[in-house]
Design brief:
Blueprint (H helix, E strand, L loop, with lengths): L20 H8 L5 E5 L1 H4 L2 H12 L5 E8 L2 E2 L6 H5 L10 H10 L3 E7 L4 H6 L27 H16 L4 E5 L23 H17 L4 E7 L15 H4 L5 E5 L19 H18 L11 E3 L10 H13 L5 E4 L35
Parallel strand pairs: 1-2, 1-9, 2-4, 4-5, 5-6, 6-7, 8-9
Antiparallel strand pairs: 2-3
Helix pairs in contact: 10-11
Length: about 375
């Protein structure tokens, strides 16, 4: 990695040591994070990481969400025998602690993204802890992937052990993704969950996140979770178990994936949500704020949305669309966001990034805009 320049005076660039009093205080009132997603392959490339760090050094970006565990296993070689057994055969970052140190030296918050229950490697290595069919054989999704069982205590412990390692390496935030069940499509066999013991899907996800948050807050590290964007507006739980009222109170930050391209036509009364990113995201985040308020959650930056930095259908997404997405976040009363591009390629969107971090959020709206309908 390139030699680190001096830290900026901008407080949004300062990354305090993990476990420090400052980090613990930030869990009560987190500073706004504007981050880029970094996939496993990009994190393995010194050249690509230098390029992304240069982007952060010259823009408002102050955090990287890095794959340390995805559906292909771990993205570093651990000395823990249990983790070694489940790490998978894909290439890995040669020296992840050194990468974390470099990010901290550049004032970039290192965030560890972990895919939890869609883990084909752990499913293969631990067949006794997978979702099953009625006949007792492993259940598979539409792509033929086996999922681990969210009710399994052994799976919980494995993932917490992975996160423990991330904390030791200096990550300042543990971000759980795929904290959900697979979609129960009617064309697929019924899912059977050993160890469920009568617990509902939302309840077990709530319990896992609650336990994880207590564990990592005690170590001065934030615990956050990615959820579907629809969760902000759908009343009750999705079939995958995600429920705003069950998840939001037990995480430091909730990250809804409010990609306009994923909202069905007509959502919120918008003919083509993908063509109206500002309106779509503003309604979704205003609903999230309203529901948090009813739960008594008023922590600034408790919601940090994922924004669409990719094209899926018309129109093509570029700087103009990203600027509209960002403005929707600010208009909804938040300052932070994370950009998702599956290939971690952001050059096309650079014109939409400001040269430095400046708070842009407005006073929170009191309610949804007139005429907007929740799903």
């Amino acid at each position: 990695m390139a030699e680190a320049p001096p830290l900026r005076a901008d407080s949004s660039r300062v990354v305090p040591p993990a476990g420090s009093a400052e980090v613990i205080a930030l869990q009560k009132e987190p500073r706004a994070i504007r981050a880029l997603y970094v996939n496993r392959f990009t994190a393995q490339s010194a050249a690509r990481m230098r390029h992304l760090i240069a982007i952060a050094d010259s823009t408002e970006i102050n955090g990287f969400v890095i794959d340390i565990k995805d559906e292909f296993g771990l993205n570093w070689h651990s000395s823990d025998p249990l983790l070694q057994r489940n790490e998978g055969k894909m290439n890995k970052v040669a020296n992840l602690p050194a990468l974390v140190d470099t990010l901290r030296a550049h004032g970039i918050l290192p965030i560890a993204r972990m895919v939890i229950f869609k883990d084909s490697v752990a499913a293969r290595m631990n067949p006794e802890h997978v979702i099953r069919k009625a006949d007792g054989t492993p259940w598979r999704d539409k792509k033929g992937v086996t999922w681990v069982n969210p009710y399994s205590r052994a799976i919980w412990d494995y993932n917490l052990r992975v996160a423990d390692e991330a904390v030791k390496m200096g990550f300042a935030e543990i971000q759980f993704d795929y904290v959900r069940f697979p979609e129960p499509y009617k064309s697929l066999p019924t899912q059977v969950f050993p160890e469920a013991a009568g617990r509902t899907k939302p309840a077990v996800l709530h319990d896992f996140l609650k336990e994880a948050r207590a564990r990592y807050n005690a170590r001065g590290v934030r615990m956050t979770a990615d959820i579907f964007g629809l969760v902000t507006t759908v009343r009750g739980a999705l079939e995958v178990g995600q429920d705003w009222e069950q998840i939001s109170p037990v995480v430091d930050v909730v990250l809804p994936m409010v990609y306009p391209s994923l909202y069905p036509r007509g959502s919120f009364g918008i003919p083509i949500p993908n063509a109206e990113p500002h309106k779509t995201i503003f309604i979704a985040l205003t609903s999230a704020r309203e529901r948090d308020a009813k739960l008594g959650i008023t922590t600034p930056e408790h919601v940090r949305p994922w924004l669409q930095a990719f094209t899926l259908g018309a129109p093509h997404y570029g700087p103009a669309q990203l600027e509209a997405e960002k403005q929707a976040v600010y208009d909804a009363g938040y300052d932070g966001w994370v950009l998702w591009n599956p290939g971690s390629k952001y050059d096309e969107f650079l014109p939409a990034l400001e040269k430095g971090f400046v708070s842009r959020k407005k006073s929170p709206p009191l309610s949804l805009p007139s005429g907007a309908q929740k799903d």
